[in-house]
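BUG-369 | component: ligand-complex export | severity: low

The export step for uridine-diphosphate-N-acetylglucosamine jobs runs without errors, but we want the raw record kept on the ticket for reference. Input record follows.
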Amino acid sequence: MKVVSIVGARPQLVKLAPMSAAFGVTGHRHVIVHTGQHYDAALSDVFFSGLDIPAPDVHLGIGSGSHGAQTGACLSALDPVLAAERPDWVLVYGDTNSTLAGALSAVKQHLPVAHLEAGLRSFNRRMPEEHNRVLTDHAADLLLAPTQEAVRHLAAEGLSERTILAGDVMVDVCLRMRDDVLAGRVAVPPLPGVPTAGEPYLLATLHRAENTDDPKRLALLVDALADLPLPVVLAVHPRLATRADEHGVKLERGAIRVSPPLPYAGLVAAVLGGTAVVTDSGGLQKEAYLLGRPCTTLRTETEWPETLASGWNVLVGDPGELGAAGWAATATRPAPAGDRAQPYGDGQAARRVVEALEQRAAGRVPVSA
Ligand code: UD1
C-alpha cells in the first residue's frame, strides 16, 4: 500500500509523528508532502528533528497568503504530485488550508482520501478552520474520528457510512513525549522568565485569527494576561508577533515573559512544569488535559468539549466580564480533584488508522460506523 500524507502547518507535524512511526513498522510506502504553509524553522523543522520524522519527500514551498491564495496555491502545486504518485490513500490532517487543498486535489483525481481528526465542529462559521473541516469531511472517503462526539457530528451530517472511531493520535505522541521528558531522555531548554526551577508560572499561547486580527480584542487579551498574578510565559506564534507589531500592542509587560514558539518537547515540559495553561489553541487544550493541568481557553466554544468535564478546561470569551479577581482566580485555579476520563483513546490510534487504511485499501471491510 502507498499512502501520501499531506501536511503543512505545525499541529499537522505533531500528528504526522505517530503516523510516520506507525507506517515505519509496516512494509507500506509512506510519502510525506509538506505544502510549506509553515516555513519558519520554529514552526516546522524542529518538529521533524524533535519527533524523529523523516524529511519530507516533496516540499511545495507555498508560504503565507490570503486564505484563497494559500489554498489555491497548495491545490495547484499538489495536482502534479498526486498525479505522479497515484497512492492507494491520500491522508489529510486536521483543519488547515493545506488540509482542504489536499482533499480537493485528491478527490478531483479520483484518489481515495482519508481525513484524520474528522468530525470536529466548533459550529462557529466565522472560523476558517470550521469551513476547512466541514468541506474536507464531506469530500473524504474515510473519516477517522478521534472521539465519540466527532462520530456523532458526522452522523448528524449523514456521514456515518464513511466514519470509524480511530481515537486521537495526539494521545500517542503526547504521552510518549511526557514519558521522555519525565525520564530526562530529551533535552529541554530553560523557559525565559522563569529563573527558579519550581517557581509557579502559567503557560500561554494566542494565535487564532479571531483573537489576533482585531486590534481591540488583541489588546484586551494581552492586557488580561499582563494583569495575572503569576508569571505568564507567552510562547509567541509568528502571527501574534506580526499582528501585535501592526496594532502597536506591546507583548512584554506586566506578568508576561515572551518566549519564541516551543518545540514539542519544550511545550510538553512547559505544561508539566507550570501551574496551568491559558490558550486559544485546540491542541494545547487537549495537551493540558492529557498532562493534568487546568486550562483556560480564550474562546467561546471548543472542538474538544470533553476537556470541559469537571472544570479541567474553562471557556472565557472575555476575561473583562469576570472582573480582575474573578479572571485571576479562574486562570490560576488548581487542578480539579479526582481522575480524568479518557475520551481521546488509549495511545494506539495511529496503529488503528494504519489498519483501517489497509483493510479498506484491500476492500476487505466495508466502511461503517
Ligand atoms: C494555521 C491554521 C490554524 C492552526 C495554525 C497552527 C489555517 C486556516 N489555519 O494558522 O488552524 O491552528 O496554523 O499554527 O490553515 N507566519 C510566519 N511564519 C510561518 C507561518 C506563518 O511568519 O512559518 C505568519 C505570517 O505572517 C502568516 C501568518 O503567520 O501570514 C499566518 O500563517 P497561516 O499559515 O496563514 O495561518 P496560522 O495563523 O499559522
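Assignee comment: Attached the raw record above. Residues 122 and 302 are 6 Å apart (CA to CA).
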